[in-house]
């Protein structure tokens, strides 16, 4: 049910947890900038937050939001298996956003206990290179 002043599009976006804007983040400082960003910049922030949010852990988010990468922690899988699972989990995490069309150039590096992932997200705004 929606309020009389809400548009149908706003309700659909809210239900899908896909807003038209995000609050800007200064990634170097790890702080909010106070600005609202749109377009490709908003999508970069959405990707960052989705990849840093565990799926099913927080009741505020729908079960479609977030990732399941924490399921790999503490397991002794081969590098090949980890790369395959990470790519699949990242795709499942990000492709729920209708603005993201595909993931390419996926690379994974495991240094001791730190997992680094890089890829190119093909979006409706163009390509976005992501490193997390």
Automatic annotation (TrEMBL):
InterPro entries: Sheath_initiator. It holds the Pfam family Sheath_initiator. It comes from the Bacteria. This is DUF2634 domain-containing protein. It comes from Anaeromicropila herbilytica.
